[in-house]
Design a protein that fits this description.
Number of helices: 8
Structural class: alpha+beta
Oligomer: single chain
Order of helices and strands: EHHHHHHHEEHEEEEEEEEEEEEEEEEEE
Distance between the termini: 19 Å
Helix content: 10-25%
Strand content: 25-35%
Largest sheet: 8 strands, mixed
Number of domains: 4
Radius of gyration: 27 Å
């Protein structure tokens, strides 16, 4: 289940006050602030920005750079309770970097570094002793907003910008693409100057007031819905670069890391799942229902320090005994037994309860003894516990036939070693969850088509696969 990131009321210092009055009740708002009153009302109600204990909001007071970073962190999810593990990891990961600055908000700053809204090289521009309490400038706000919504990778960096502001020449060159983006996205607008009524100015070196900040942050949250879903890692496959996670509903799902999505493990960007450990917390971060980041935090014992480590290939020779915790059915099948992943040989022999079987008869929770040759499993002896009939398995392949009336799907599974394909039958249970794996949106059974690549999760009953969840890649 995805949760939209909304601010929760929290207790902070007098810098942002603990006052609870809404915009309509602030003593210093008048008809000159009507343009911002709705947004001030919404942002104070959500806990993003607050009034003062004397009942005022001080809409015309300029926001300092330190205040701006704290407010941006809140919109990015800092005050979301479900994100506590990730915030703690960010504070640990960046504590030495942040310690170079005398800021009263080290955890919020570390969180922005972790989220990519700031870089270590940019901190001095906001937190140096002569900068922290200075006014946030409009061109700086354009940069922060763009990075907040993960749009930096899409901005125009050609060196030629379409800016029609009368003072476009005054915009710092490095900030021009960000100003162009926030203008085209209607996040920031020009400033009217009554002395020059025919001109529109951006005023890059003008300050951002508290009223303006409320409007800008409200505009971001209105135009760019930020949501996140959580789970636990229960397995991974380095060959296919997939992770298996269990969501809040308890259903294990195999997921291939899409191109263009940031994979962040313990605060470090990576392109491989090899540093992820079983039991890690995972968060899928969406902007407007489009997956932007997959964030993973291992437990402290297995925390990754970002150093490139040589890949060690485990080639067991002696038999291994344990409990199957994850089964991956894809181009190259594998099982995870007691937190270690083992790849099956194309010619693996499998016995379940002393009966010759296939990998499709294995279940999570089976007790298993594995035998090896050339580093791969060649023999599995599995015994099923009494409740194994309810265990969940997952398979992946391409749809070859559909029977709408009987809700049957035939799919091919290709073996990576032999190149041979086998056809498997899935029966789609009534009420099964079907999702588009790119957008994350639920779709109907009738939306399935021939040649769709799918990942199906379900149970085996009488030798037939009953799917309760399907993800279309």
């Amino acid at each position: 289940m995805k949760k939209r990131i909304t601010a929760l009321a929290i207790s902070v210092s007098m810098l942002f006050s603990s006052g609870s009055a809404l915009a309509a009740g602030f003593t210093d708002l008048n008809e000159f602030h009507a343009w911002a009153e709705k947004q001030i009302d919404a942002m104070t109600a959500s806990g993003i920005i607050k009034g003062y204990t004397d009942g005022s909001f001080r809409p015309d007071r300029s926001i300092t750079k330190t205040e701006a970073l704290v407010l941006i962190a809140r919109v990015a999810g800092y005050i979301t309770g479900d994100y506590d593990t990730f915030k703690a990891m960010a504070s640990e990961r960046y504590k030495d970097v942040v310690a170079q600055y005398n800021t009263p908000y080290p955890n919020e700053v570390a969180f922005l570094l972790y989220k990519g809204v700031l870089t270590a090289d940019e901190l001095a521009g906001y937190l140096a002793s002569d900068r922290a309490d200075s006014q946030l400038l409009r061109y700086e706000m354009a940069v922060l907003l763009t990075k907040l919504i993960r749009a930096e990778g899409t901005i125009n960096k050609s060196g030629s910008y379409t800016l029609t502001y009368s003072d476009a020449g005054e915009i710092p060159y490095v900030a021009a693409p960000y100003v162009e983006y926030v203008t085209n996205s209607a996040l920031m607008q020009g400033v009217y100057d009554p002395e020059h009524p025919d001109d529109i100015y951006f005023k890059p070196y003008g300050s951002v007031t508290r009223a303006q900040m409320a409007v800008l942050l409200h505009r971001v949250m209105d135009k760019f819905e930020i949501s996140v879903s959580y789970g636990k890692i229960v397995g991974k496959n380095k060959t296919n670069n997939t992770i298996t996670f269990r969501n809040e509903e308890g259903s294990p799902t195999i997921y291939t890391i899409p191109k263009g999505v940031n994979l962040v493990v313990d605060g470090y960007k990576t392109d491989s799942v090899k540093e992820i450990t079983t039991g890690a917390d995972v968060a899928f971060f969406y902007i407007n229902n489009t997956l932007s980041d997959i964030e993973i935090v291992n437990d402290e014992e297995n925390r990754w320090n970002g150093a490139v480590r040589e890949e060690v290939t485990f080639t067991p020779t002696a038999p291994v005994e344990g409990v199957i915790t994850t089964i991956t059915l894809s181009d190259e099948c594998s099982v995870i037994v007691d937190d270690v992943e083992y790849t099956l040989s194309a010619a693996s022999t499998i016995y379940v309860n002393h009966v010759a079987s296939t990998v499709y008869d294995l279940r999570v929770g089976h007790n298993a003894e594995l035998e090896f040759a050339n580093g791969k499993v060649i023999m599995i002896y599995a015994t099923a516990p009494s409740d194994s009939s309810t265990q969940i398995v997952t398979t992946e392949g391409t749809i070859t036939k559909l029977n709408v009336t009987s809700r049957q799907v035939y799919m091919t599974v290709k073996n990576a070693e032999t190149g041979l394909e086998s056809e498997k039958l899935l029966i789609i249970e009534t009420g099964a969850s079907i999702f588009n794996g790119i957008s994350g949106k639920a779709i109907d059974f009738l939306s399935l088509e021939i040649d769709d690549h799918i990942v199906a999760t379900g149970t085996l009953k009488g030798g037939e696969f009953y799917a309760s969840k399907i993800i279309v890649r």
